[in-house]
Design a protein that fits this description.
The protein is an alpha+beta fold and about 140 residues long. Helices cover about 35% and strands about 45% of the residues. The chain contains 4 helices and 6 strands; from the N terminus they run ααββαββββα. The chain is globular.
Length: about 140
């Protein structure tokens, strides 16, 4: 379990760096395709990294408008499902340019090891939608 948690922590650190760089293609490279995200009772399927990257570019535009400059992510829980599949729950906190918290939430990922690298297959991101809405800046709105 320690090796799994370490590998997933490395994935998270790389993912956060991609978000902080506002690099949609680097974010998309952390996923395998097709992939699925759920948000506020809706599911979104992505057939390719290009499709995912295009959607992520819109999300990054929203983050820029909110002055997100730093992301803090911690693994809350991780569990092996089998040798090459895992589930992890993370807590995310978005901070602005003054290092003040903007929003925080938890999300759950289904991960799969592909060619010796962990990739996200699915994310349940309902908490993010709720966190931004509570702040008065609805995601997608």
């Amino acid at each position: 379990m320690t090796d799994l948690r370490s590998a997933l922590a490395a994935w998270c650190a790389s993912y956060v760096r991609a978000f902080e760089a506002y690099d949609a293609d680097a974010i998309a490279a952390h996923w395998t395709y097709p992939s699925l995200t759920t948000q506020a009772g809706r599911s979104f399927a992505f057939k390719s990294d290009e499709h995912f990257s295009k959607n992520t570019s819109r999300l990054l535009g929203f983050y820029k408008a909110q002055d997100v400059r730093r992301v803090v992510r911690h693994i809350v829980d991780a569990q092996a499902i089998n040798l090459d599949t895992a589930r992890m729950t993370v807590s995310d906190e978005m901070l602005n340019s003054a290092d003040e918290p903007l929003a925080e939430w938890q999300a759950t990922y289904i991960m799969q090891r592909v060619d010796d690298a962990w990739k996200a297959v699915m994310a349940i991101a309902d908490g993010e939608v709720e966190a931004w809405a509570a702040r008065g800046t609805p995601l997608g709105g």
